[in-house]
């Protein structure tokens, strides 16, 4: 039992979710609002004098220590939605020390290159501050392999550069891979559907489709929004766009990212009974930024620890 399990110091935020997954070999800690857990300031393109976040600096080191996460947290940056997967060595290229003056502890964040996810070795922790987007985890039961962990937001699982080209629009971020999940399977050397049967998968905290809407009548983005919805429904099934097929409801462009991720994994051979979609914590503590217009820049925090063995 860690000190974290016995309780954090008074005043330190408690997790809104503490999960054991995949036979106890994966631990997930989720910290929501009202604290701002954004890691954006720890990007290489941010000037040194602007790398400051009081919530992260005050609380993250003591959380890491009490939760047994270790002194180093891996945090690839998904800001480009490039569907790339980093290795530990690539993530380690940029390292920041986060010190807590109040709790007299420190932790290192390996920010590394821009990538949506990474291959996480045993006994290491992955940390991300999502804006309501889900995180996907893949575990290969075929041996001691790194855990596949990735941000799985819409622009990561859907190649919007392909849609932009279809509409004749300027392509903002061209990329090679249709989905970060497909790229993650490649990096994990899952080459066939037979290989994929060894996998366990978890999709964590997808945003509620009632909030995740892309209306077709939007004055600037309506054409893209409609193409996006139709493309998702055609490729992955109408269940991925709730209300699709109903002329009134489908125009809302609701997107169920949990269903999209599940469909993509099944198409590549992951068995449906080995895919778990974990719903978000209550929305009053775990909100998408579009639900939080006053504090729209605040982020939730999600930490995935790859344990060396089931615990």
Sum up the structure in keywords.
311 residues, alpha/beta, six-stranded mixed beta sheet, 13 strands, globular
Q: How big is the Rg?
A: 19 Å
The assigned CATH architecture is 4-Layer Sandwich
Q: What is the count of structural domains?
A: 1
Unreliable spans are: none
Please give the count of helices.
Answer: 9
**CATH topology name:** CNF1/YfiH-like putative cysteine hydrolases
**What is the CATH top level name?**
Alpha Beta
Helix content range of the residues, please? Answer: 10-25%
Number of strands: 13
Spatial gap, N to C terminus: 10 Å
Order of strands side by side in the largest beta sheet? 1-2-13-8-3-6-5
Query: What is the percentage of strand-forming residues?
Result: 15-25%
Oligomer: single chain
* The CATH fourth-level homologous superfamily: CNF1/YfiH-like putative cysteine hydrolases
On the 0 to 100 scale, the average pLDDT is 90
Largest sheet, strands/sense/barrel: 7 strands, mixed
Topology as H/E string? HEEHEEHEEEEEEHHHHEHHEE
Task: Decide which structural class fits the backbone.
Answer: alpha/beta
């Amino acid at each position: 039992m860690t000190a974290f399990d016995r309780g954090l110091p008074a005043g330190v935020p408690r997790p809104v979710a503490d999960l054991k997954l995949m036979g106890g070999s994966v631990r997930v800690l989720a910290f929501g609002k009202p604290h701002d857990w954004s890691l954006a300031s720890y990007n290489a393109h941010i000037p040194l004098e602007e790398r400051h976040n009081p919530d992260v600096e005050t609380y993250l080191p003591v959380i890491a220590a009490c939760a047994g996460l270790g002194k180093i947290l891996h945090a690839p940056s998904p800001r480009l939605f490039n569907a790339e997967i980093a290795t530990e060595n690539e993530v380690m290229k940029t390292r920041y020390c986060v010190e807590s003056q109040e709790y007299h502890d420190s932790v290192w964040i390996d920010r590394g290159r821009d990538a949506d996810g990474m291959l996480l070795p045993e006994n290491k922790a992955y940390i991300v501050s999502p804006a309501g987007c889900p995180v996907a985890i893949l575990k290969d039961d075929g041996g001691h392999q790194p855990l596949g962990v990735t941000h799985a937001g819409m622009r990561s699982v859907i190649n919007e550069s392909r849609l932009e080209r279809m509409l004749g629009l300027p392509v903002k971020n061209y990329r090679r891979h249709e989905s970060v999940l497909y790229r993650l399977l490649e990096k994990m050397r899952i080459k066939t559907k037979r290989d994929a049967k060894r996998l366990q998968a978890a999709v964590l905290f997808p945003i509620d489709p009632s909030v995740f809407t892309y209306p077709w009548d939007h004055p600037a983005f309506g054409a893209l929004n409609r193409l996006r919805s139709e493309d998702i429904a055609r490729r992955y099934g109408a269940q991925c766009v709730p209300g699709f097929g109903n002329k009134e409801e489908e125009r809302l462009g609701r997107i169920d990212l949990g269903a999209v991720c599940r469909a993509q994994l099944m198409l590549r051979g992951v068995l449906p009974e080995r895919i778990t979609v974990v719903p978000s914590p209550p929305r009053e503590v775990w909100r998408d930024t579009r639900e939080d217009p006053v504090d729209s820049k605040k982020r939730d925090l999600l930490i995935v620890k790859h344990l060396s063995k089931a615990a």
